[in-house]
């Protein structure tokens, strides 16, 4: 019995040292169960979008895309200044940058949506809303080249063939290269799933529209808007 208690004590000491090592030396990055990291993971699982009006502010303040990603990866989540029960949820993440300035970034988490908008210009989280007009530049896609799939209807399959995009990894790569959300053609309040309208350029540089929803951890494209005659029928 005494031997068991001794081993249990040593185990507890070792576990405590290991926990301290993870918390302080790795700055919580190894603990996905911590509230702050759960928030960050929820954002990183989505498509990061910068609305045009926020992009103008970002440029005027000399903020770079890399700064925002740095805040998301290594910043502190300010739960007191966040909206945790609203739709969209809005989380403020802050980080002191190399220039000594404290950079504050608001990230939205609309329910059942695969996007997270980046907001910089608002003074508090209650002023942050889902964008309804204009466009949003896709800044970052989750690291999953197979996250996009397409409906198997005859029309959509025919359009894919005409566009040379039967391989959905090609669509992911084109979105990653140059794509934007058209907020005016999206329906974030649609039930049961918000619909997003993504515009991207195909391999020939032609702008293609696509309607899509989030299904589990994947993005489902339900239709394409093609700016030329394909010969595909409903």
Shape type: globular
Topology pattern, helix = H, strand = E: HHEHHEEEEEEHHEEEE
Secondary structural class: alpha+beta
> Quaternary status of these chains?
single chain
Number of domains: 2
What's the story with the biggest beta sheet?
11 strands, mixed
Termini separation: 76 Å
What is the correct CATH architecture of the largest domain? 2-Layer Sandwich
What does the secondary structure layout of this molecule look like, with pairings?
Elements: H1 2-25, H2 35-44, E1 47-51, H3 52-60, H4 65-74, E2 76-83, E3 89-96, E4 102-109, E5 115-119, E6 135-140, E7 148-150, H5 154-163, H6 168-177, E8 179-182, E9 196-201, E10 207-215, E11 218-225
Parallel strand pairs: 1-5, 7-11
Antiparallel strand pairs: 1-6, 2-3, 3-4, 4-5, 6-8, 8-9, 9-10, 10-11
Brief summary of the model shown:
The protein has 234 residues and is of the alpha+beta class.
Task: Using brief descriptors, characterize the structure shown.
234 residues; alpha+beta; YaeB-like fold; 2 domains; eleven-stranded mixed β-sheet; globular
Task: Describe this structure as you would to a colleague.
The protein has an eleven-stranded mixed β-sheet with strand order 2-3-4-5-1-6-8-9-10-11-7, sandwiched between helices. The protein has 234 residues and is α+β, with helices and mostly antiparallel strands. Mean pLDDT is 88; it is low at 21-29. The chain contains six helices and eleven strands. It is globular and about 65 Å long.
